[in-house]
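Our consortium's second objective concerns turning raw sequence data into structural hypotheses that experimental partners can test. To show how far this objective has progressed, the report includes one record in full. It was chosen at random from the queue rather than selected for favorable results. The single chain below, 198 residues long, was entered without modification.
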Amino acid sequence: MGLTAEDMKCTPNLLGYGFVELEDPSAFIEAFRVMGYYETDEITRKVIAGMPNLKHGKYMGVVVSPLAWTKVKPDLTLIYCNSAQAMRLIQATVFKTGERVASALSGLGASCMEGALKTFLTKKPGLVIPGGGDRIFAVTQDDEVIFTLPSEMLEDTIGSLKKAGYEMGLRYLVPFSITEPQLIPEAWSILERRLKRK
């Protein structure tokens, strides 16, 4: 599905993606204050300054498609998942890179700006809490979060799902143990034996 500015109804995202521009930048502050998102103009200005954005006119639209059916090479992948699935995706990503997955969240423009646009700009994976637009218009459920990653990392991440902790039983569905005494992983026993003793 291809989208241009004429197809999109979320004006903050249109601005963030550079599809439109404001005559008066203070209108952004006024709109967010009318929505009651932030306590003061100064706080609103601070949040807006931290939002990812593209230069006006650099791109004309967005193509969105299910990964299995896509006809174009995607720039990034958004995966709607539950928190346990997100944990495994993060572990698989860190397994190959050693870099923590960082997320800077404001609760606004979540999947579109804090997820897709941020990952597009930084080429780094992220975890996003879906915002109001996701929930109201896209029927995102309470148990869903969004994991984003640049598509060049997708193959390694998928391959690492069966490596990062997998042999020790860390997989999805995550097994649990409520037995007594609790089963302690051998890896933690190694650490326990090497603790400094007084």
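The partners drew two points from this record. The chain has a mean pLDDT of 89. Residues 1-64 form one domain. Both points have been shared with the crystallography group to help prioritize constructs.
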